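Make up an example, fold above all:
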Amino acid sequence: MTKPRIGVIIGSTREGRFAETPAHWVAEIAKARGDLDIEIVDLRDFPLPFFDELSSSLYSPSKSEVAQRWQKKVAGFDGFIITAAEYSRGPVAVLKNALDYAYTEWNRKPVAFVGYGGVGGARAVEQLRLNAIELQMAPIRNAVHITWGDFIQIKQHGKKLEEFEHLNQAANATVEELAWWAKVLKTARYNEAETAQAA
């Protein structure tokens, strides 16, 4: 069986975003392990309209061509790491919208979060974990929380994420847990498909 494919989703599209910085950082940490196939996915490449379909794609195909392309991209992964900014105690709308535009493509796959903003994005991540459960994903316990103090050091004083040992430790623990779940659930999905074919 091939290595689990992990999509590292840049969860913001606004001008001047910070999201791509932690996305590339955590992607390099995950790549260094050698047991995961990592791809960065930028929501800017999928300009989804705000959800305007008749229903969830669980019940009827999406009409939007961009949504169909997004669903195909999501389907190709075995797990996800998502960068999550926090605004007004929650995740940004563009990220929630992207989650809503797929359904079965998320099912039975693990997801981890790299949060930043107020209290390290913890409140946004907490909400996203609930969304992930509704999408039949497996949100893992570990996460990376880039607090305001760390954020200021990076944005205003030129420090790099890899210079913060507590963030490196959190990222390694998060990727380790995600890799375990990705392998287990990939095997389970494969076995289920094999059983269904044999029936």
Notes: The chain has one domain: 5-198.
